[in-house]
Amino acid sequence: DADLRVVPDAVFGATLQYFTGDKRHNVLLREIALSKGFTLNEYGLFRLKRRSASDSRRPGILIVCKTEEEIYQKLGMDMPPPELRVGGDEIEAAQKHELPHLISYGSVKGDLQTQTEWSDGAASIAEMARAAQNVGLSYIAVTDHTKSLAFINGLDDERIAQQMKEIERMNKKNRVFTIFSGTECDIRKDGSLDLSDASLAQLDWVGVSIHSHFHFSRAEQTKRIIKAISNPHVDCFFHPTCRLIGKREPIEFDFDEVLAAAKKHRVAMEIDCAPERSDLRDIHVREAVRAGVRLVIDTDAHAPEHFNFIPLGEAIARRGWARKTDVLNTKTAKELKAYLAKKK
After folding, report:
1. Above 70 in pLDDT, residue 51?
2. Cβ contacts of 35 within 8 Å, gap of 6 or more
3. Exposed, middle or buried: residue 3 (CB in 10 Å: 0-12, 13-18, 19+)?
4. Which end of the chain has less neighbouring CB within 10 Å, N or C?
């Protein structure tokens, strides 16, 4: 079901503001209006006027209502983007003019988690690269699964070396689009990784992820993850909470401890924007931003059409107060190469 509200252009801004965001945000905003001698509703911002000697008040002169921006401006605030209107600290940030300049849609320049027919993907490396280029991306990282996931033909060290040679040949033929050699390396039960350090050192991009032992205790899982991301070759922790919406609950681990380790070892945390994952979720993104840990926005593409999910990841990042500078794959391919070279 949906309600349709039709209003004159003259009050559109007030109505839009009223019906956008969490109810708590509007309650706080109306309290601010009252403290300044105004009243705010879906028809506009009004100046209060005395009705009797008892000092009860009623709406008087209409001040503004055409745009959201002018309503917030009259209340002495910046306008929080719709994604931030949850009735939390966005109000104070708006009053102090400290709202973040959120990452804008279309900022992501490359996808750093893609699977191909080398493991469980539906298309070749060339087909995935072409599909990414068609949606406006300028690079991808090929991150097929590793040998622990034998049932989906995960790659061992030998096949990784073969794949790297194929990617190198393709990059020599196409100077416009870049393919990074990479992996979605499985984190084993004890926190060790599923490829040798020698192989990991040769790859452009190393992502690690959990695909088993989801029911470890919080302490065991935290220890396992920290051991994995402490490996000096690791660049990113893929879909960290492992959730599958409606199918699998998130794993339990100490997120703050993992963030501290990620910052220490310069490991990025992924926003996997495949709809069934949406992992990290917005509250975790906010914590990562506060901790100074870089993010990446990936589709976890297993087929060419999956690259269309990128705006979903950008939306999660925006809800988590992420700026463009917080997200690694807003860099160009050249800038990302320089970042990774410096990290290594």
Report:
1. no
2. none
3. exposed
4. N
pLDDT digits (tens, 9 = 90+) for 148-178: 998 889 999 999 999 999 999 999 998 899 9
Cβ(118)–Cβ(127) below 8 Å: no
- Burial letters 53-92, b for 16+ CB under 10 A, else e: eeeeeebeeebbbeebebbbebbebbbbbebbbbeeebbe
317-326 confidence digits (pLDDT tens): 999 999 999 9
Rounded CA-CA distance 299/207 in Å is 14
Amino acid symbol at 173:
K
What contacts 151, CB < 8 A, 6 or more positions away?
Answer: none
Q: Is the bond preceding 280 in cis, omega lying within 30 degrees of 0?
A: yes
Structure tokens at 316: 């999660």
